[in-house]
User: What shape does this take?
Amino acid sequence: MTRSKAIALVAAAAFALTSCQSTPKSTPVPSGKSAALLAMEQVAISAHKCWIASKDPAFKQYQMANELNSFSGTPRFLLVPAKHYGGKPLLVVQAQGNSSRVDVFGPLMNNPLGARIGSDIARWQAGNPACAATA
Assistant: This one.
C-alpha cells in the first residue's frame, strides 16, 4: 500500500467515526463546582481580603481556617482565635450541596460584631466584593 493510499484510508476512517457521533449539544461545560462551592469561594475570598489581609482591628484576634475543599459537600471557613488555631470555632460560614445559600453561625454572631458579619456576608454572597457597605 502506498503512503498516499494509507493517508486516504486513515482520513476516511476518521471521517466515518466523526459522522457517526451525535450532534454536540449547546449546553455549557460544567465547571465541576457545586453551587455551594462557588458561593463559598466568593464569600471566603472577600472575607479574607476584608477581615484578615486588611488587618481590620475588629478581626485582629481571629484567623481564618479555610475548609473549602470539603468532600462532605459542605464547603466552609471558620474564624478561630488567632493564638489558638486548633481552638473551638467562633464563627462558621458554610453552604451545602447545590444550594448557593450561605449559613453563618457561632458565638461571634451573638456579640456586637455579629451585625457587621451578617451584612458583610450578605453583600458578598450577592456578588458585591466591597469591604464596606456603601450608602
Remarks:
- The CA atoms of residues 73 and 97 lie 5 Å apart.
- The chain has a mean pLDDT of 81.
- The longest strand covers residues 62-67.
- The longest helix spans residues 35-53.
